[in-house]
Amino acid sequence: MILNTCHEITTNVVTCRKFGGKIRAWKEIAKAVSNLPDHTYKHKLPSNWRRLKSKYNQYKKEGYESLIHGNFLNTSAQKLNGDACKWALARWSNQVNKCANLAQLHAEYNKEADKQGWKHIKEEKTFYNFIYDEEVMPLWYGHRYGELAAKEKFGYQFKTKMPAFRDSLWFSDGTKLNYFYLNEDGEVKTVQVYEVMDAYSEVFLGYHISKTEDYQAQYSAYKMAIQTAGYRPYQIKYDNQGGHGKLKSGDFLSKIARIQTATQPYNGKSKTIESAFSRFQQQYLKRDWFFTGQNITAKKQESKANMEFILANKANLPSLEDIKKVYEARRKEWNSAPHHKTGKPRIDMYLESQNPDTKAVEIWDMVNMFWVTRKKPITVNASGLSFKEQKAEYHYMVYTEDGMPDLNWLKKSIGKKFVVKFDPEDMSEIRLFEDTNLGLRFVTAATTKLEVSRGMQGQEEFEASHIKKVTDQVKKVRRSARDEMEDILFEHGMTAEQQGLNKPNLKGIERSKKGRKKKAQGEIGQYTKAISNQDWDDEVDLNQEVEVNLSEKIV
User: Fold this and answer.
1) pLDDT digit string, tens, across residues 240-271
2) 357 lies in a domain?
3) Fewer C-beta within 10 Å: the chain N or C terminus?
């Protein structure tokens, strides 16, 4: 810029005459150039008019290249180069035998320099300039501080904008509920909370508090969110941890939203709910004295708990039920508070907004959405159906309209496998489906199996009647099954009687035609009794006559 100005002055006849001619003009120009303020015009042009004129002539002849210093890109003056640079970088990046600081790196380098024939480095600052060079830092940062920290510092960050209306995007995430409570054993504990939030308004729509973040917590939070909104969201985003795999396998998430996506793993900035929940902790949960503080990465002293005071008042800590009530109240305060960008109450933003692409939820939609498909099918046995869920065991039976076990269905279904759908919040009923080539086919519903007391002393009035009805029905089914098969055998001339032998009676149901005569040999009950009383080392003839006092038999 300065040399171009010199050219304008010296080549313009009128201007050059004002400066006193060409020779006089260069002297005045050199004087003006030397008086230019350094902070505005950072140059190294000579102040002597002859040298300045010479520099100008070189510039006019060679162009901009004449202004570049001769040592530019010349590495001969570098103190660290070649293998020495690589060694220093490798030593600083060593994750096992870590280099504590630059002073250690300086000392170890000079020892290595003696072995390798490198130049000794006098100042520690040389290593600082090399290690913290903008082009070198990305190489070692991940090895020294972790790849996620390097990703956070050097990775590309998208600029995004929030949805323009409600129910366009819901975020969900689980975290620690930042309250201490006292359990029944007098221990100080914390629990987890799973929240579902509308991205547009930051309204907390649904939540669930539990000891761990599992699929049931997520299920309950989404169910509450749907009930609160009255609409299905267009898209939901979740962290793909906890029990989301189970929800996806049961088609739960696809029933709720048109699009279901997992947030980018290990990328806190993609989780808008984390930012909102952090503000919720700082502005609302922090008001209660039993606040646990924010997560362990929080650096501010204000974000930490006053453990001295909490431990001094350990006996006064609230119960789990108490903190659930406090948390519910704080959520209402958050939803009613002004949004940090619009200034309007969050709940008003949500309720006043309309989404043209979302569908209102009807009663039958709730049933369809919130019944989860169990991953593994269940096999029916003589006891009905049983399975474990969340470490709890459940037993079911198919009952008729009059409340009796459907023994005909049970007889035909033993050994079959059924796909089960259930509501995790109401395990009193399950739905059974057959897995066919065309998809799941509904078979029937089963309810919790009725439990009766084994001893008469503990039986309630209805139990004795129920037991008798079921016992009579069992006998009826046994007779029916036997008679059905006997008819088939008779039709083909294959009954025992048609072949000259006797048909055995149904034990416990039918009696011998000869009446109540004493019988020892041949009775199956006596035979099995003899087996149960035998020791393995006894030599007993099981065909010998067993004396039985029929009067002592229990019929």
Assistant:
1) 665 555 555 456 777 888 887 876 555 555 56
2) no
3) C
Same domain, 313 and 234: yes
Provide CB contacts within 8 A for 248, sequence distance 6+.
254, 260
Residues 45 and 142 grouped into a single domain: no
Condensed to tens digits (0 to 9), the pLDDT of residues 370-406 reads 777 888 899 999 889 999 887 889 999 999 888 888 8
Report which DSSP code applies to 360: B
The residue with greater pLDDT, 317 or 550, is 317
Write the single-letter amino acid at 290. F
Q: What is the pTM of this model?
A: 0.55
Calculate the CA 516 to chain-centre distance: 70
Over 230-271, what HEC string results? CECCCEEEECCCCCHHHHHHCCHHHHHCCEEEECCCCCHHHC
Instruction: Provide the b/e sequence for 494-513 (b: ≥16 CB within 10 Å).
Output: ebeeeeeeeeeeeeeeeeee
Task: Look up tokens 């001295």; give the residue.
Answer: 308
Domain boundary among 48, 67, 86: 67
Two structure tokens written together for 68: 């570049």
CA distances from 164 to 169, 196, 199, 471 (A): 10, 18, 9, 65
Rounded Cα distance, 277 and 199, in Å: 12
For residue 505, give every residue at least 6 positions away whose Cβ sits within 8 Å of its Cβ, in sequence order, or none. Answer: 511, 512
Q: State how far the alpha carbon of 373 is from the alpha carbons of 173, 259, 416, 431, in Å.
A: 22, 20, 18, 9
